Amino acid sequence: MTGVGPTQRRITSADVRHLVGASFGPHARVRDTGPLTGGGYATVWWALLDDDRPVVLKLAPPAGTPLLRYERGLCAAEAAYFRLVAEHAPQVPVPTVLHHGSDPAYGEWLVTTMLPGRSLSDLAEDGAAVDDGPARHDLGAALAALHRVTGDRFGYDGDRPSGSTWRAAFTAMLDALLADASDWNVRLPFPPERLHALVERHADALDEVRRPALLHFDCWDGNVLAAPDADGRLRLRGLVDGERFLYGDPLLDLVSPLLFRRVEDEPEHPLLRGYRAAAAEPLLLDASARSRLGLYRLHLYLLMTVEMPSRGMTVRTHPWRHARLAALLDAEIAALATG
DSSP letters of 92-111? Predict the structure, then answer.
């Protein structure tokens, strides 16, 4: 067994073997299994099949688990995302969906291929002096390829926050987080009215986004896999955890890769160089873009604050996270109020 958070399950190797059999038939055999760490939402294990194929099993939270509004149906969303990318942006390395299933005992699960490489966050924790610039350049190019795919509406799929315009969808996303904060008794460092006023102040900038581009949204270093090439340079090997995808402004995808930083202040960052080299349209970081980036950071820091109770985190157990996010929210609000 492995330690779990409030949305995760306690499972064993026997459970993994059962689910592999349910996915591929009774003749499927598992040689070895183990948990994969790094995420706080789903339960994720690897399994080595008897034909030497490594696969990843992701088990959704049990039915009835309290979730944030935008997190409903994420297992199905991840399967849809990987299939979308495989069909419309095949140059982007994402796992192949091998099975998406459910049953009354285990709920919903997903089995995919296991991509090579290690996450950029794991590589950084090793402390080795590795130049990750080439991998981040590749990530920028991959995001540019994803952003060429166009959806039929803005926001999330299903009954989650969406809209006919980007302003409407983004406002709905913020309103859903505010409602989640109320449900979970999360104290925010600002009143909801101030957030709405900031969106209204920068509404014209949001209205400049007229095409719903396919976004990964969650490309922080833990979801970016890299490995050395033949020349020893670290290159992109995969994007994982695509369940939080949505359609909207491509700039939204430039926030998580530079978490807690301001991408517009680093115009020569490898991510931006890779993006510019592959983008279908010029990447302009003008005043309008800077306003939108500020709103998107505000949204991300709000999300990271509101999700704390659902991940078993409190101000007492994680004071550093709460304090840092509060300071970042204050800074973005101040900048947007004067910008």
Answer: S--PPEEEEEEETTTEEEEE
pLDDT tens-digit readout, 125-163: 887 667 999 999 999 999 999 999 999 999 999 999 999
Neighbours of 52 (CB within 10 A): 7
pLDDT in tens, 75-87: 999 999 999 999 9
Classify residue 241 as left (phi > 0), alpha (psi -120 to 50) or beta.
left
Structure tokens, 65: 């688990």
* 249-258 exposure pattern, b = at least 16 Cβ within 10 A, e = fewer: bbbbbbbbbb
Q: Which amino acid is at 107?
A: G
Going by C-alpha positions, the residue among 134, 91, 87, 83 that lies closest to residue 112 is 83
0.90 exceeded by the pTM? yes
> How many angstroms separate the CA atoms of 305 and 89, rounded?
33
**Please, which residues bridge with residue 118 across strands?**
226
Q: What share of the chain is helix, strand, coil (3-state, %, to 5)?
A: 45, 15, 40
Residue 77 to residues 9, 71, 80, 211, 228, Cα–Cα distance (Å):
20, 10, 5, 21, 31
- What 3-8 contacts at long range (C-beta under 8 Å, 24+ apart), as own/partner pairs, is 4/43, 5/40, 5/41, 5/311, 5/312, 6/65, 6/66, 6/310, 6/311, 6/312, 7/40, 7/41, 7/42, 7/61, 7/65, 7/67, 7/310, 7/311, 8/40, 8/41, 8/42, 8/43, 8/61
* 3 state SS of 253: helix
Q: How far apart are CA 301 and CA 295, in angstroms?
A: 10
In whole angstroms, how large is the CA radius of gyration of the chain? 20
Query: What residues does 59 pair with on adjacent strands?
Result: 43, 109
Q: Where are the alpha helices (DSSP H) in 89-225?
A: 120-125, 133-146, 166-183, 192-201, 203-207
| Distance of alpha carbon 135 from alpha carbon 250, whole angstroms | 19
Contacts of 185 (CB under 8 A, 6+ apart): 309
Q: DSSP states of 211-238 as a string?
A: S-EEE----SGGGEEEEE-TTS-EEEEE
Q: What is the side-by-side order of every strand in the sheet holding 246-248? A: 162-163, 154-155, 246-248, 213-215
Place of tokens 């991408």: 263
